[in-house]
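CORE FACILITY INTAKE
Project code: CF-77B
Contact: R.S. (postdoc)
Sample description: multi-component assembly, two entities in total
Requested service: structural model of the whole complex
Turnaround: standard
Below are the sequence entries exactly as provided by the requester. Do not edit them.
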Amino acid sequence: MSRKGDRYEFCSNGEVREYLRYLEDRFGIPAKLFKGYTFLKKGKNIWIFSGDPSTIRDIGRIETIGVKFLTITKKALKPTTTFLQIFGKYATKNIVNLESEEEMIQFMMGGLIKKKFNVEKGYVIVKYKDDVLGCGLYSDIGLVSQIPKARRVDERWFERTEE
Amino acid sequence: MSKVERWEIDLTHYKRYREIIPNFDKFLECIIRPLPYSIRVNTLKIAPEMLIKRLENRGFRLEPVKWHPWFYVIRDLGPLGQPGKTLEHTLGYYYVQELVSAIPPLVLEPEPGELVLDLAAAPGSKTTQMAQMMLNRGTIIANDVDIERIKALKSNIDRLGITNVIITRVDGRKLIAKRHFDKILLDAPCSSEGIVRKDPTAPTKISLNEIKHLSRLQKGLIKNAYTLLKKGGILVYSVCTFSPEECEEVVDFAIKIGFEPESFSIPLKTVKGLRKWIDEKGREHEYDPGVTKSVRIYPHMNDTGGMFIAKLRKI
């Protein structure tokens, strides 16, 4: 029934080291935060799980496990918005701080912010005030929101709400 | 936004509980009144006082729930009109959860490090509450049979940042595991007679055949839960309904297969599980005395939805 890429497999120690080094190098997220976490792969996605890894082999077919952590794209590793909303607060670099509510709404609607930011090109962590909003892709054209459709806002939610 | 004070609902079905439910007229009067929304602060992501300040700035009027620091009743939704249309909700800072639905996890008391099964988990209000109680440590197996409901469960897990849950999708009567669980929550599929205050479209014309069918399903689930639970482990059984066939009759069955009922107290007014009752055909039903350790939560006694809860230990 199941073929490779269709079910979860444990990541090797080498793979885990590579992912944690990436988080540390690109975002300054310390690797030691992930002590006790288990990393699994399924297709092009890496998942992170804080439960007891020995339970995995003791139950039948697994639908999902923990949360999606990274997607392996052709050019780079892409952290998920779900992951960044949990661990992004520990980052020290490649963070875009949006400056206005308009920018935040635009980003959370899945839009493009045509502006220069002081970050490296590629995937970045996007914040507004104290909130980690999620993942953005920064390039010459600006900041492209990577917020998944199901996690976006509607601009009408923000009408008449700020005094 | 105009506020509906009462719903037009056909309450004929509920008449079968006239002799069971205390202050029955008050009960009928209460269940046609919409229930205010309530929320659970996701303390894995934000402190309650921070969130409340932010939601009040958006126009919500919130009242803390006396018996638990994570819960608030929304007394006024302000200009938004809906409880989930905020940035804070999108970022997973809170979950819209009915107050009675918070009780079964509080009775089960899952702790960090334990192995817990949520046998009928979707859409995940109780799964995510338990993960929050466990501080994302230990393991929850969240099972449901319905693919669409599992999508909702998955999306709530992502939004709330829950990392210790494994989702499985099988008929809960057939779930197998090579090890036993410390605790099991069985918030079973039911006729949902207790949720009309929240959802006026919930079916109020429930056939007795349907109730019997659900009762059989619930017994099947509780039977498998017995197999899956470790010796000495705790099962909490809950349904958001009033029919004794889905409440005491299922607990009576659980006692027969080896569960021992335990007393417990909850921060709401409750009525003991029924030892006896007479159905519409005049037939008397009598159950094991242990069923009286279960509790019935009635809408008119607490201004909540309805719920039945039993705490059972595998001996």
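Facility notes:
- Chain B touches chain A through 41 residues (CB under 8 Å).
- Residues 91 and 159 of chain B are 6 Å apart (CA to CA).
Invoice: internal transfer
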